[in-house]
Fold this sequence. Notes:
Layout: H1 2-72, H2 77-98, H3 106-122, H4 124-131, H5 144-147, H6 150-170, H7 172-204, H8 210-233, H9 241-266, H10 278-286, H11 289-358, H12 374-505, H13 512-548, H14 555-591, H15 600-689
Helix pairs in contact: 1-2, 1-6, 1-7, 1-11, 2-4, 3-6, 6-7, 7-8, 7-10, 7-11, 9-11, 11-12, 12-14, 12-15, 13-14, 13-15
Amino acid sequence: MAARSVGTLLTSVLALLAAGVLVSTGQRMVAAVTQYRDSGEAQTLAAADKTIFEAIRAIRSQRGTATTALIAEDNPTPKLEALQRSANAQYEATIAAIATIDVPDRDALGAAITREWKIATSRYPLLLDEARRPRQERDLKRTMAWQDARGVFEQLNHASSAVSNRARMNHPLVGEMVQVRRFAWQARDRYGLQCSLLRGNVNTGQPTSEAQKILHGQHRAIVAAGLAGIDELLARPGAPPAVTEAFRTARAGIDAANKKIDQVVAKLGAGTGAVMPPAEWTATCQAPFDSIVRVAILALDEAIAQGDRDRSAALTNLVVQSAAFAAALAIAVFGWIVVRRRFAAPVRELLVAIGRLRERDFATPVPPPAHQDEFGAMAVALENLRESAATADRLAAENEASQRAQLARAGTIDTACESFDSTAKSVIESLGRSAGALRDTANAMRSIAGRSSQEAAAVSAAAEQATLNVQAVAAATEELSNSVVEISRQVQSSAAGARDAVVQAEQTNATVDALAESAKRIGTVVELITQIAGQTNLLALNATIEAARAGDAGKGFAVVAQEVKRLAGQTAQATDDIARQVAEIQGATETAVAAIRSIAGTIGGIDEKMTAIAAAVEEQGAAAQEITRNIQQASTGTQAVTRTIGNVAALSRETGTASDAVLQSVETVAADADHLSGDVERFLGRVRAS
């Protein structure tokens, strides 16, 4: 607990120091952020004021330029349209600049400028309509509504004032330059108004009225006040030299231009008409314009440059303060890590190790020191102490365990012997029973194998007999097929003889009666052959059915074969009768050639029937061939059965041999079991004796 308290105290002290440094550097960093933001705002305000000033200047100068163009140019429309486009661009830039600044009523300022601008642009057609007239007919009074753009200028001046006031409040140097710009524009504005005030008088030569004189004096006084204000602002030490030099040049130009204007005013009312051409009057009035505007532009550029310098300085300061804050934070974190790792953690690990030793936990080693310091030396010493205690504890435990082991060994051996004796007897008895059962099984296997061999031999003999029967049927069927082929050949030969009889019938006519009688006998023979053909077809069908069952018995096939042979003999006898009758017909036709012509048609019919008989005989031959093929397939199947039965017989003999080997192995196992029983009894006796 003391170590933890010291570690907590060190951590707390370090945290307080780090907090002080971080708060200090954090405040400086926040101040730098504020400075950077303010300098950026100053730069934005200066740029926005410059944009608004450019818009005011462009719109104001547009009035004088447009008026001069109307008076002096024959076709001023292109110039007026270009002026309008330029003014629109300045207006859009002004609205965009106002949207980027943060001033009170910013949206209201933009809306007011937009409203007045729409009113002013709606009057621009008056100027364009006047420009389309001939120059002698133009009247500037008709454009006075367009000339009166006070609303636009007032809103632009309000926006410029809001920007400059914001800049003067938050950024003195930038505000000073903005104020120089305001005074310069005041001088430029009033100076231009006095020129516009006197333009009509200079063009006509009429003297100025009292009101004009008063207003002219006011304009001169306001110009002088603006110049005095600029002089006062630039009188401080460190004023921008470029702005100061530009102001001297502008003031000298204004003084010189005022002298020329006073000279022109003095000539008014002399009755000589126009005192000065309009273009020359415009040039005289505008002579100091650029120098005055240059003062304002340089002041705004100096304000923007000052804002940029302030922004760069603020950024540098922000980077430095941020780096200081990050360094302080890193040092604080590093210190905390060092305290935790080099002090608190080692102390905590030592306390844990001491607690384990107090609980007599000598197995867990003390963690090795991460650093070779005082805590590391303490850890090494504590580890040596742990090893010594662990060695002593281990030796005591080994001695006690050895004594207990010797006492328990005798009881364990006795118990083991009794258990082993019981188990061995049980196993040996079971082995004897199993050997007897295996002996009976082997004997049964040998008996079954013998019977299987005998049955296989009987089946093999029957299969061989069936094969011989099938082969005999195949031979008979083949002879039947050959007989059918011979019958077909003889029928075809008879048909050829009939055709020859037709030829001979044309040579004789004397033996018509004998030929008719022979023809009748030929018809009888033909009918007999037809009957034989029908029976042969039926027998062929029966033979096919019996052939399908030949694999089972094959006995019916022999009967069918005998019947086929008998029918074949009848067919041969009928064929002999046909041949004899044909011979008689041939002998008769040799003596009755002339008479046969009358019955040529009849003999032609006989020829057709003989052709049909030949076709039927051919079909019988095809059927006989099919029977022969099927019988041959049946013979092949019975041969395969015979081979298979032979294999079964061989396997049965091998099974018998294996049964004999198993029986012999069983006898050996039984003998070994008897020997094992004796060995176990002798072993247990020696163990108990020891």
